[in-house]
Amino acid sequence: MRHFLISVLFLSLAAGCSSVNIGPHRIDVQQGNALDQDSVARLKPGLSRSQVRFLLGTPLVVDPFRTDRWDYVYMYYKAGKLAEQKRITLFFEGDTLVRMEGDVPPVATPVEPSPASTGQGVQP
């Protein structure tokens, strides 16, 4: 009976260890500028460099030979694997933002109501 209990204990320990993923623990890592949608949506041509810096923070990459371009990069690694990546490139002329490229949300175009929906222009 004693050998049976030892065998059962050993088998249960071995079965419990076989389902565990043994390896190094990988932490979640955020790198770069955290680009939230609200701040990015506020970007528009005509803003000054200081206004852009207030909205998004200091750019991650500034080319010393091309000071008219700022690159904002954000990467999020979850358990060692790339889970999210965003990139925005801003172009300036002098101190004014003129163009944006990358993961910029589309600009919503306002839809003008039709005369029928407002009740104007409808003849009884």
Automatic annotation (TrEMBL):
Pfam families: BamE
Annotated Polar residues bias: 115-124
Family the entry assigns: Belongs to the BamE family.
Recorded GO MF terms: protein-macromolecule adaptor activity
Keyword tags: Cell outer membrane, Lipoprotein, Membrane, Palmitate, Signal
Assembly notes: Part of the Bam complex.
Role played: Part of the outer membrane protein assembly complex, which is involved in assembly and insertion of beta-barrel proteins into the outer membrane.
HAMAP family linked: OM_assembly_BamE
Region called Disordered, residue ranges: 103-124
Organism: Thiobacillus denitrificans
Any single GO BP term: Gram-negative-bacterium-type cell outer membrane assembly
Mode of membrane association: Lipid-anchor
Domain Outer membrane protein assembly factor BamE: 32-101
Protein name: Outer membrane protein assembly factor BamE
Record localization: Cell outer membrane
Entries under PROSITE patterns matching the protein: PROKAR_LIPOPROTEIN (PS51257)
